[in-house]
Amino acid sequence: MKNESILSSIPKISYTEATPEIDTKEFVKVVESRRSVRVFDGTPIPEAVVESCLDLALLAPNSSNLQAWEFYWVRSKENKEALVKACLSQPAASTAAELFVAVARTQTWKRHSQQMLAELERSETHVPSSAKAYYQKIVPLAYSLGPLSALGLLKRIVLFFVGISKVVPREPVSKSDMRIWASKSTALACENLMLAFRAYGYDTCPMEGLDSKRVRKILHLPKDAFVVMAISAGKRAQNGVYGPRIRFPKDQFVKRI
Description:
Elements: H1 5-8, H2 24-33, H3 47-57, E1 69-74, H4 77-86, H5 91-94, E2 98-105, H6 109-122, H7 129-143, H8 150-162, H9 175-199, E3 203-207, H10 212-219, E4 225-234
Antiparallel strand pairs: 1-2, 2-4, 3-4
Helix pairs in contact: 3-9, 4-10, 6-7
């Protein structure tokens, strides 16, 4: 297919972007000092810092730039109390200065692909026609499942036979595939958010221990949305980290083939 050129060929573009110098030691310090802090000391976080961290979270890489994420900054006393309870009243939530819920969306790709097309049309630099075709044709084909996921089933069958002789992407072809797809991008943004807070001198704790049904009700989430994790933030208390970091041997996870 002609439209595949955006994936397999280098497009002719005039855009260039300067690469800033990075202080590697400071980045290493941020990553190594990020811990899951379970107790915070009550120090408030300036609103400007929170806004900056959220901005940095939204710079995370994501699938086809479709940005299948939403971050709920839970601020009202009533909602915070409800969220703490939904997070099992764990200290990481109850002592936090700020609480966020990272939500993934499986259907916003339709609207976001149209936004991408509009952005490409407004671009002052040359945009390859293959890039526009990607959002016009490839994205709807890749992410549409059809009524009762019938199109997804058809894609699964077609891709099985096409894949016998040709390299093809096999997913997403089901609702569970779409949840995985959206979760990947959202999780990347969550890491950005946590590292951003650490860079500003604050700490975080990602929490999967929560009642997702109650969290959905608190946030009034639509049907296609699901909770990936809650994230608490604040200044760590002296007893905020429960013990030294434990990591298993590197060779257990890094495979050289």
